[in-house]
UniProtKB/TrEMBL annotation, chains A, B:
Name the UniProt record assigns to this protein: Cobalamin (Vitamin B12) biosynthesis CbiX protein
SUPFAM superfamilies noted in UniProt: Chelatase
One Gene Ontology term of the molecular function aspect: lyase activity
Keyword Metal-binding found: yes
Domain of life: Bacteria
Annotated PANTHER family: SIROHYDROCHLORIN FERROCHELATASE, CHLOROPLASTIC
Organism, scientific name: Ammonifex degensii (strain DSM 10501 / KC4)
Keyword tags: Lyase, Metal-binding
């Protein structure tokens, strides 16, 4: 049974699409790790022209996926993760009663994140 | 010459302070790595009651710091990093002409971030 993964990021309305491109890169890297899963990117920000969570889910469902994991590319559990995303997932569960939805944890505190931040500091210290 | 580091995150207005507490944990971990620097956390979200960038800088300046690195705990260069933070730093540079300010890069795409996301997926797959 094929598994679907929605790689869900914040996105930006910024004219330069760098903040949106980041999520594309993350999704590509995860596709390489999970070649047997179907992956879609989705953006929360209503002001980005990129695909949103319901569209990503519709695409996965149309490809026969029965189990969908939503992977939030968010540092912390702010309001999107506490309220907006669960609300959208509740609606999608009603719309697609045969599909199971699971929301993963956000990135959160992690020693690997501290390593990356230490590198960012080192870059400007020279 | 003492160096100051402002660990600058987004913050959340969420009633549960988890998204703000995350930045405290990140700052504590960085303090352990840089015991000779002075570190302050700061939050961008105007709706969080936590310390903002100008207050963090004022505290560092009052302790004799001459060089301040602002380390953004943001995944991408969205509008905060492209516009809001540079504007605040320009104002602070005028207010404190003897202090040098340097803005580090955001977290960005990194294989270590992909590792963490793979762990978050593994948690819900069981």
């Amino acid at each position: 049974m094929k598994e679907g993964i929605v790689v869900l990021g914040h996105g930006s309305r910024a004219a330069v699409d760098e903040a949106n491109q980041f999520l594309v890169e993350v999704t590509e890297a995860l596709k390489a790790l999970y070649p047997e899963s179907l992956l879609e990117s989705a953006w929360m920000n209503p002001r980005t022209p990129r695909q949103k969570l319901p569209e990503a889910v519709a695409r996965l469902v149309s490809q026969g996926v029965k189990r969908i994991i939503v992977l939030p590319v968010f540092l912390t559990a702010g309001l999107h993760l506490k309220e907006d995303i669960p609300e959208i997932l509740a609606e999608l569960s009603q719309k697609y009663p045969g599909i199971s939805f699971t929301l993963a944890r956000p990135i959160g505190f992690d020693p690997r994140l501290i390593d990356i931040l230490a590198d960012r500091l080192a870059e400007v210290r020279g």
